[in-house]
Design brief:
By secondary structure, the chain is of the alpha+beta class. The chain is 25% helix and 44% strand. The chain has a single domain, classed as Alpha-Beta Complex (Nucleoside Triphosphate Pyrophosphohydrolase). The longest helix is centred in the middle third of the chain and has 13 residues. The N and C termini lie far apart (33 Å). This is Nudix hydrolase domain-containing protein.
């Protein structure tokens, strides 16, 4: 990917009881940093489909998207403009099977504990902190805003 591009990303916080699922990445731009399952939206791909695909690829889980916390615009550590669509979800199937390339660990963590992680432990801390605050406040928005916009029924 060329520097100074616009990158579209789908990101998902998977909830189970009072815990959220996070992954530890080992990619050149995120060595041993925690993140939510997420990844690039491919050309022509529906935003919601991208979120489901990324979770499945990175974790092995199938999920049901439940809400959105919003859309986040930031400059990444690679100097790209990133527009990130963040969703909440619940597991609907599958089994934990971490993506072999780039994902080295995972854990279920309470939001309060996630918020206490050091900045250096989080990938793209400038966007993860606002997402975590939204999750803690339960500031969720209906996912139908994407359904209506995309013409999905």
């Amino acid at each position: 990917m060329n520097p100074k591009s616009i990158v579209l990303v789908a990101s998902v916080s998977i909830f189970k009881d009072d815990h959220v699922f996070i992954i530890k990445e080992s990619k050149p731009t995120a060595v041993h940093q925690w993140n939510f399952p997420s990844g690039h939206i491919e050309y022509g791909e529906n935003i919601l489909s991208a979120a489901l695909r990324e979770v499945k690829e990175e974790t092995g889980y199938e999920v049901k998207l439940t809400h959105t916390t919003g859309v986040y615009n930031f400059n990444s550590s690679m100097d790209n403009q990133v527009i990130l669509f963040h969703f909440t979800a619940e597991i609907s199937g599958g089994a934990l099977r971490l993506e072999e390339e780039g994902i080295i660990d995972s854990q279920w963590i309470k939001l309060k504990e996630l918020a206490l992680l050091e900045d250096g432990e989080l990938r793209e801390v400038g966007v993860l902190r606002p997402i975590i605050r939204q999750l803690q406040k339960r500031a969720f928005y209906p996912i139908q805003v994407f359904n209506e916009t995309l013409g999905i029924r």
